[in-house]
Amino acid sequence: MQRLRRLLKPNPETLHHLLVNYKWLWSIINSVTFLSDSLMTFVYLLRSNAVDSPPLYTSAHEYITLEASYNLSYYARGLPAVPTDCPTPMGIKGKRVLPDPKIVVERLFKRTVFKPEPMHSSLLLAYFAQHFIHQFFKTDHQKGPGFQWGGHGVDVSHVYGKNKHVENLLRSFQDGKLKTQVLNNEEYPPYQADVPGVPMTWMGQVADNNKFALGHQFFGMMPGLFLYATIWMREHNRVCDELRRVHPEWDDERLFQTGKLIIQGETIKIVIEDYVQHLSNYHFLVTFKPELLHTEVFQYQNRIAAEFDHMYRWHPLMPDEFNISGVVYPIMEFIFKSDLVVKYGTKVFTDSLSRQIAGQMTARNHGFLTQSVALDTIENGRKLRFQPYNNYRKNLDFPHTKFSELTDDPEVAATLEELYGDIDGVEFYAGLLSEKRRENNMFGALVIEMGGPFSVKGLMSTPICSPRYWKPSTFGGDVGFNIVKTASLEKLFCKNIPGDECPLISFVVPPENIPSSEKCENCKNDEL
Amino acid sequence: MQRLRRLLKPNPETLHHLLVNYKWLWSIINSVTFLSDSLMTFVYLLRSNAVDSPPLYTSAHEYITLEASYNLSYYARGLPAVPTDCPTPMGIKGKRVLPDPKIVVERLFKRTVFKPEPMHSSLLLAYFAQHFIHQFFKTDHQKGPGFQWGGHGVDVSHVYGKNKHVENLLRSFQDGKLKTQVLNNEEYPPYQADVPGVPMTWMGQVADNNKFALGHQFFGMMPGLFLYATIWMREHNRVCDELRRVHPEWDDERLFQTGKLIIQGETIKIVIEDYVQHLSNYHFLVTFKPELLHTEVFQYQNRIAAEFDHMYRWHPLMPDEFNISGVVYPIMEFIFKSDLVVKYGTKVFTDSLSRQIAGQMTARNHGFLTQSVALDTIENGRKLRFQPYNNYRKNLDFPHTKFSELTDDPEVAATLEELYGDIDGVEFYAGLLSEKRRENNMFGALVIEMGGPFSVKGLMSTPICSPRYWKPSTFGGDVGFNIVKTASLEKLFCKNIPGDECPLISFVVPPENIPSSEKCENCKNDEL
């Protein structure tokens, strides 16, 4: 059976080509439930079977140990580390001494000119990604780059805090709701000063009116993160009101706990049907249907891999300046300025993020503020003894044989060859960032082919997707279950932004907001 | 499909009757691999499907929450707690005020006369149980009876210590081995004084030569536990020697980690094929074959339930005195006397434990030393708002309708009725202990029907059983894999006890060692 599946497993590039072309074919498949459900089940399993569950490796051992399963303080590993007694840092190929990480950043990562995201993805998308992934990418820097302190999955800890203590601080203990305050006639999270004990990370001087108490300690760093934190907080409280309407006898605790279950469900629904749909750019409509896996061999557990963390460092998406309602803020006047959201209001802020194009996830597109993160990524990839970029492709049966295959930019190809000598000697993150863009897609192929499995596995393996959770009563009955099953990005914002009219809520910047210099061929909006 | 399975699900009593009778039939089934494998797969699934995985409930909420899945500090719950607003402590039935726990202990649990285990189980069995289960029953008394501090499963933490720090203290860092010392020409764990920092629990005055550093902090309490700790330590070191023979190039770390994987495998093999086989007393040979589950819908994760912990409080198995090679030690001269094992040697000690009969797990058979534990169990069962005993039977489709069904001892039945009033008002542990013995079995039916699922689920869901672990290379190649696949209780002791001849190593006391007063009808030895 497994051999048969292996035989039927299509080549990644063929499958991708199929999925981003032949729109007429997909519109048929999408409209026939039997076909689309079968294909969706296939996608769930194809992706999640590529992930070891339970995990086999950590960064501490290049062979199987019980620690990999039991010691949650480790990140898992997609591929085991290069053994320490290998002839080169990449194993057997490549240079004996890797290039100075600073040189790698300087020559491969540093933004020379802002490269817009060719599918015209908006900043609303970029911040969605950042807000979502920080709930599970939590490196424990004190222990080292192979360690983490999170819950290894989509546990909504970015909304409710990293543990029960913080959760309790954020709760109002009234009607299940989270604490809020009203500023400029809108509901926002409380100031940190009003909720002592909620850990938040600040850098440099940050004014008290920019210091909010949020579910994740980094979310004060970017107004876009603060916007999402605000919207999800409002959504939780809105859901509690809905639950209270149908269950007037419920106490605060039950409203809170059930609201949290609904928020996890909504998160996954939106991530799959809005966010993953956008990232994949498939004509096939990807759907969130946990029931499709209930009769399949599938593990409802998840572990975050170190490679997934590195792969998801999409800092090139950040522009150097932000246009909020016509006012341009250089990034240094934007970070740690949550009060900009309060000043403009969530409606205008959402609209502005929907109308500004993000940067392309590619070589030479790291803005000056994030180059230090790229440096750190290279250095940590070496400490973690990541296998070379091409081994991750080999593992998925589509290796490169030469630099000109990796990138279609001859200058980047030449730089890679100069820095690494051999196509099998290229570092993981350097390869990922340099990869040529895939047909009709935001990313190179490996981001999709590695990220897909880790994402699908993480999303579908949450407890709520398991057979005994996935039923109306878990979510407070049909009312709650329907909130989950009909959630969308648009509803999430629309229902939580005051006023009669919704702003533009879009992961794609509309054509009228794209400067002619940033227009591109083969973009989402130009497609058939 | 699920409905079909439900229909095919046999009545627990019918199935049990089949399994403990018709020896001729079973000898045929056992000898035909196809039949026995199919039936074993059925048993694995029947048992493990009875356990919620991921778990749905903790003692903190009687409805589904994300905490049940994510907050590992809770024990899970088999059935949710009785809601606090119910009319009686047991829900709707039974008395409004439960009897004083001291009265329950006095009238239902207190040993009047030692009742021998009717299947003639030995003390070697009793200590096997105690040694094995303490790795996962770890109540966090500071937080309360609903909380625990363990790893929720068969993680061999009782051999290697509760965390990496203790594990490191116990390791010699030479050839993968654990630290040892030689006493009376045998290898034993080191004294606690020689390994500062290993946490051990002592009560009263304990001499330094009784204070050993062991994997579990309670294992200094009983010489039988110390015997098992010693044997498993020797086995780990023996396995490391075997591994080093085939992998002379391996370093200490790899030998240790791989040895630990083998020890986990051996543990499960012995628990299923020796221990569970004995407890079940089935004529069907139960087997440890993880590969049978690799194509089935099965979750490789486990959570210890509070009811499983209470159900496994088998203190009646402890006698009041211990006969070691003809010398009789009252229990107060036996506890915290690990040096008795050293004095007599592991061979004589093992032999003696194999020849002494354990107590019966039944009403009025708690020795004076363990009555306080029974009291604690009743009190905590109330704090945890356990549903009544009969609800657990209802949940398995075989409820009792009257007290005379629960027990065949009219006096116990009358006491239960007096204390609880209603068959649906009997407390969980009181019911479990009072239950009549099942046909050809050590226990009442509910212990088997509840314990079976929790046990099978816990054993088969360990990471080593999962498809990507269960292969020779995980265990250092065929040599290690074969050690796991051929492990037995007899080998475990025989290979680790010095001398040419093995002692008696048996979970059943041989007929010649059973005092005539303790002979019983329908015992294992008397069977056809």
UniProtKB/TrEMBL annotation, chains A, B:
<dbReference type="Pfam" id="PF03098">
    <property type="entry name" value="An_peroxidase"/>
</dbReference>
<dbReference type="InterPro" id="IPR010255">
    <property type="entry name" value="Haem_peroxidase_sf"/>
</dbReference>
<keyword id="KW-0223">Dioxygenase</keyword>
<dbReference type="GO" id="GO:0004601">
    <property type="term" value="F:peroxidase activity"/>
</dbReference>
<keyword id="KW-0560">Oxidoreductase</keyword>
<dbReference type="GO" id="GO:0020037">
    <property type="term" value="F:heme binding"/>
</dbReference>
<feature type="binding site" description="axial binding residue">
    <location>
        <position position="315"/>
    </location>
    <ligand>
        <name>heme b</name>
    </ligand>
</feature>
<dbReference type="InterPro" id="IPR050783">
    <property type="entry name" value="Oxylipin_biosynth_metab"/>
</dbReference>
<dbReference type="GO" id="GO:0019371">
    <property type="term" value="P:cyclooxygenase pathway"/>
</dbReference>
<dbReference type="InterPro" id="IPR037120">
    <property type="entry name" value="Haem_peroxidase_sf_animal"/>
</dbReference>
<keyword id="KW-0349">Heme</keyword>
<keyword id="KW-0479">Metal-binding</keyword>
<protein>
    <submittedName>
        <fullName>Cyclooxygenase b</fullName>
        <ecNumber>1.14.99.1</ecNumber>
    </submittedName>
</protein>
<feature type="binding site">
    <location>
        <position position="47"/>
    </location>
    <ligand>
        <name>substrate</name>
    </ligand>
</feature>
<keyword id="KW-0408">Iron</keyword>
<dbReference type="GO" id="GO:0004666">
    <property type="term" value="F:prostaglandin-endoperoxide synthase activity"/>
</dbReference>
<feature type="active site" description="Proton acceptor">
    <location>
        <position position="134"/>
    </location>
</feature>
<dbReference type="GO" id="GO:0006979">
    <property type="term" value="P:response to oxidative stress"/>
</dbReference>
<dbReference type="GO" id="GO:0043005">
    <property type="term" value="C:neuron projection"/>
</dbReference>
<dbReference type="GO" id="GO:0016702">
    <property type="term" value="F:oxidoreductase activity, acting on single donors with incorporation of molecular oxygen, incorporation of two atoms of oxygen"/>
</dbReference>
<feature type="active site" description="For cyclooxygenase activity">
    <location>
        <position position="312"/>
    </location>
</feature>
<dbReference type="InterPro" id="IPR019791">
    <property type="entry name" value="Haem_peroxidase_animal"/>
</dbReference>
<dbReference type="GO" id="GO:0005737">
    <property type="term" value="C:cytoplasm"/>
</dbReference>
<dbReference type="GO" id="GO:0046872">
    <property type="term" value="F:metal ion binding"/>
</dbReference>
